[in-house]
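Look over this record as teaching material.
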Amino acid sequence: MTKEGQSMSYDAIIVGAGHNGLAAAVHLAAKGWKVGVIEGNAEPGGAVKTREVTLPGFRHDLCAMNLSMFAGSAFFAQYKNELIAEGIGFAPAADCFASVFRDGTHLGVSTDLEKTTGAIADISPKDAAAWRAMLSEFGSDAPHIFGLLGAPMPSAATAKVVWKAWREKGTGWLYDTARMLLASPRDFLDARFESVKLKTMMAAWGLHLDFAPDVAGGALFPYLESMADQAFGMVIGKGGADTIVKAMVGVLKAKGGELMLGTRVDKIITAGGKATGVVLADGRRYEAKRAVIANVHPQILFGKLLDQQASRQEFDRKIAKFRAGPGTMMIHLALSGLPDWTAGEALKSFAYVHIAPDLEMMSRVYAEAMGGLLPAEPALVVGQPTAVDPSRAPDGQHVLWIQVRVLPAEFSGDAAGEIGGRSWDEVKEAYAERVLDIVERYAPSLRRKILARSVFSPVDLERENPNLIGGDNLSGSHHLDQNFLFRPVAGYSRYRTPVASLYMCGASTWPGAGTGAGSGFMLGKMLTK
């Protein structure tokens, strides 16, 4: 700790210890920079945390659970040996995700192609063939698409990806890919499949971001997640999602980096239009010789941590209008046993079970939430981590991870007309009961197995992590006007800001939300070229 009036110096200071900030810190430290990471909370990780929030011995992923993006990331590929040495562990799921339907059936994706296509063929032999064809195309398309997602936007690397794709795949492929990037989930899926159930199963992934079936730009994630899970499977963290954070912190410290927890940054210091350091809430000051990197929401960075500047007025105005995505509720259950799904015992082995049984329901829940109403039938992602990793609970017992998708941060009423109150603190327990009622339509008597529960409303999630404004776990809508070149605002998609030596990373920046650590790693590489 520095003495009063004395300043400690780093090459780079990272504000916020989310996984993107840690990825940047690890890479900079590996390149010889003296790095300090400062996190206001008592533990690092941002939205990637695991905690016993119900009963002792039951480990719940507080927000993020699926670590497939991290396991397939360029950051993990480069630092794999060091991360393994620090204890990182993954638990693979052969049965990745499924959707349940109102008629008591289900459809899922497993790494066994015959198992997946056999279930699809029972509904539509034509669609089973179309699934195989899509998977075959994915094998040659994936390197180009993931190359695009893994390059700064825009950049020479992006141009090289497009050039290579054109050379290998032709102009027609570029047009088809551009159409997919702009398409809605419904339009993309209608053009390829006939089965309503198959289209519903894939479209559910759009709601993990903020794409209802008819929102432009929403086709990419359902396509990528479905095909990637079929080709590679899904992984979760061994013992909890925080395995990646613990390992990253270990690598950072092994490379000489420092992590300071429990005291937030109060202000970013500037001089001559350049970021030069930070002041902590307890008065400590730290100098940054080369860079200050903010792994925080842009509205926090420019609305709270920086003094207003007349020269930045237009930029600040655009940041203030950066739209949040929908809110989220998390319900964590300690269970005596897994849910008894009416659609079949086979569902007990899936990592994710989506309760979003038709496209009309997905459109309705989105419209209700965007209209400021508590949805009558929210979309649910039911995670069954102990079906994949039994170490997260005592022997024979389980944890259940329920993510309630597409909720309003603030609301004026209830679409079902049943719940009173105008704040989440007033209604969260009643709304959690609605969620459990919905789960019990597909898994009767779930409540009999509940040993304890913990509910995090959208407001609670923001209290836990201020970057999740209004419970938005995306750190900003991914609609087309806030994605690609426009994330977070046009002209600043390459992590720089109008303040020299001040950079942004995290879910609010390209390539957006998820556990892939892409923005932090890309920024780290750009600063060390």
